[in-house]
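Here we describe the complex-level prediction in full. Unlike the single-chain runs in Section 2.1, the three entities below were treated as one system.
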Amino acid sequence: MHVKRNTILTIASAAVLIGILYWLSMHQLKQGMLVSIIQKSIIFALVAVSMNLLNGFTGLFSLGQAGFMSIGAYTTAILLIPVKNLDGVYYVNGVHPLIRAFKIFIAESPAWLQSLFPFIALLIGALLAALVAALVGIAVLRLKSDYLAIATLGMSEIIRALCSSPQMDTITNGSYGLNKIPGFPGMFGGLIPPMATPFVVVALCIAFIMLLIKSSYGRAFKAIREDEIAAEAMGINLFKHKEMSFVVSSFFAALAGGLLAMYMRSIEAKTFSISLTYDILLIVVIGGIGSVTGSVLSAFLVTASKEWWLRFFDHPLTIGGWEVPLFRTGFRMIIFSILLMVVVLVYRRGLMGSNEFNWDRLLGRFANLRRKKKSSQGGDR
Amino acid sequence: MSMTTILQHCLTGISLGGAYALIAIGYTLVYGILRLINFTHGDIFMMAGYFMIFSLASFPWPIAIIITLVVTTLLGISIERIAYKPLRSSPRMSIMISAISVSYLLQNMATYLFTAIPKGYPEIPFLKRIFVVGELSASFVTVLTPILTVVLVIFLMLLVNKTKTGIAMRAVSKDFETAKLMGININGIISVTFVIGSFLAGVGSILYFTDRMSVTPFSGTLPGLKCFVAAVFGGIGNIPGAVIGGFFIGIIETLLVAVGYSTFSDAFTFLLLIVMLLVRPTGLFGEKTVEKV
Amino acid sequence: MSTILLKTEHLTMQFGGVVAVDDLNIEIPTGSIIALIGPNGAGKTTAFNVITGGYQPSNGSVFFDGQTIGENSPRTKMKRIYNGSDKTVFTHRVVNTPDRITRLGMARTFQNIRLFKDLTVFENVLIAKHCHIKAGMLSAVFRFNHTEEQAMRHEAEALLKTVGLFDYRDDKASSLPYGKQRRLEIARALATHPKLLLLDEPAAGMNPKETEELALFIQEIKHSFGLTIFLIEHHMNLVMDISDSIYVLDYGKTIAVGDPKEIQKNPAVIRAYLGVEE
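The structure predicted for the assembly as a whole is:
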């Protein structure tokens, strides 16, 4: 229906968004906070979509995103911290000689390799997480949904314990965390400014995930979600497809973790606690389990709200000399939690339910509003 | 390490295990009846800690204990009514997400009301009195915990096996639909389950925090998860199993910390969970169920 | 001489202390319609579940299209409590999952309809084509298998047209009326390209007219798709109308085998269904 019109609208909006991004990159200094927030939002959009792939489309209730994000974050960070900062960062126990040697090797390699290296680092982190997911999946994917949730939660905690354990000091710097992580690199020799890099990367990733969902394999995932036994009877190998979804989801969660490391410039194991997974779950639920566009919208909504608008709730507010009660630090998190509960209990399908964004639907809504207005204005003119 | 030290650690471990056992019972009961992992249980335990801090500030300890237990139980029941009951016929994922969001809310509420800075847990004088037996020394609460745990469990087993309510509880956990058709008051039974679970969590919280010095809004998360593992270990839905699981994890955890692997003591519990789920998902005493096509 | 497409040998299934299927020996020739009947609880659906790989048999073997797709002998705990009538020892052990068996050419429908409720009618059928996909995940993602995908879609559409559900293709499966849902389940099973179609009570909940239509429908698809049909049914008219041969089960045991005329007159069958006369 209206395929041509929809395509034009989509391209037009994409052009507008790119234009806005470009403008922002020109005025970066003045719009620092805005840039920072939308960068964080887009990173969370990627994790949310990856979580939705697993939980929403395949029906596997996994709470292990934070664990895979930490694998991506740590790997990327370790690979990218500049050689000159190594001693400063690993100030207690020193860095592992192999790591130092590898970094020196990279620092002395040709320029094109060096400019590509941050992306290679992201990829390595993601592949490592995918490997871990493949191994863990063999063990946990045959568990019932309730048990899968706790098992993946536990796995996430185990990974965190490993990353911050004293035994891993020379690699991950144990509980001291890593800092001096370089920020986003530019792409194509500056054609795409550093600030826009996360958007390009995330856009490509989400495109991949959407293509997967719309493919035959994506349909198999949905079948598994709807009725495992029927899916199996229709010839779908349950384990193979569950593993596929799990591995792909973890790959992108880790990639997002790597981007997060570049965004935050310093990370520690505490960053990737269970609360992080809960935060992402919140985004997925509000956006609609089973909707990719819902997750993206929700990521922006939730992140922006948390950082920006709801800071409003955290500071004492005086209206005409009267201090509004309740407004102090931590209040916005309560508002959030209540919001989440309202969505879970009342607006169960979230913002978009299991539907993707659809120009027909949006414009249809406007048409309805106009129609209602016309009829309330009385008869035909 | 000398024998005395080992015994000393065992004693601490048994005490910790007792607290864990009481909390694990809450998980196993709720799972047995609702097939729900009550993610909020650990946070109820945490809130009980705060309730105690505030009651002890204004009332003498016997009254404070009663207040804490009553309020904790009320909290448990309210959560069930508000967050779980409306979703009883929804897919399993929804109710688990609801549990997670309540857990989130409780933690944020605690942070808002009490700040994230650890609050000192007050001392109940008689509980902290030190006993010395030979070379071993322990506070009264360390010795009291396992004994109290066993006593409460015996009461609970009597309740479940000999009373009408108990039989109703077991019927509901075996077959929800049929129990309803047989005229059992489902809502009442579910409330009773949460009352028992929250009450025991409250008791466990008093015993647990008396030995620790402080409470934070996140004090409930890890113990909560560990106690769930304990329940799985013993066979989810099985009360004595949960108790044994609690003691087992408490002792191992204490020993691990004693030999210096404290970072791994938490990881150990989760490793145990994964191993259990792979090797013997029904736990030590659980029963197998076959799904009919 | 027609070949035997499906054959079970001493197939026994025991759950705990109950022998649900006892020493079942059936032969289904290619191109025939064979029925499995019996009072409720006689073990018919269990037999289906074992044959399609849902359970491992306690004892016995299953041959399909020239290969053994399931074989087992009582082991460990079952060895002690085994109560089946037949004690033949089967030396090999062959385990197969339902999805593999489906890909070999055996499809089924379910007693309680198991459609993909929230998906559209079209998607339900299209998903059943996935089992024969040649492209790997990456290939499919980047649409290198465009031709294959288009072919699958055309086949699914054609199938919907054949069963008369094409107009409903964008509707949610759960919104269909009951009779059409049953037909959709059959269409979905057909999409997997089966040689043998197992129908579990396809006429359940239908009135006599609908049952007649179903009988015609089954015979039509058998001809158009070259199928062999194995069905469980309680509607005797349907069974007697279209079956070439009937197996009667009662409490897991086979009490009669024969063509419709013989079965209708068989005293053991009458007794099983109606009880003994005083």
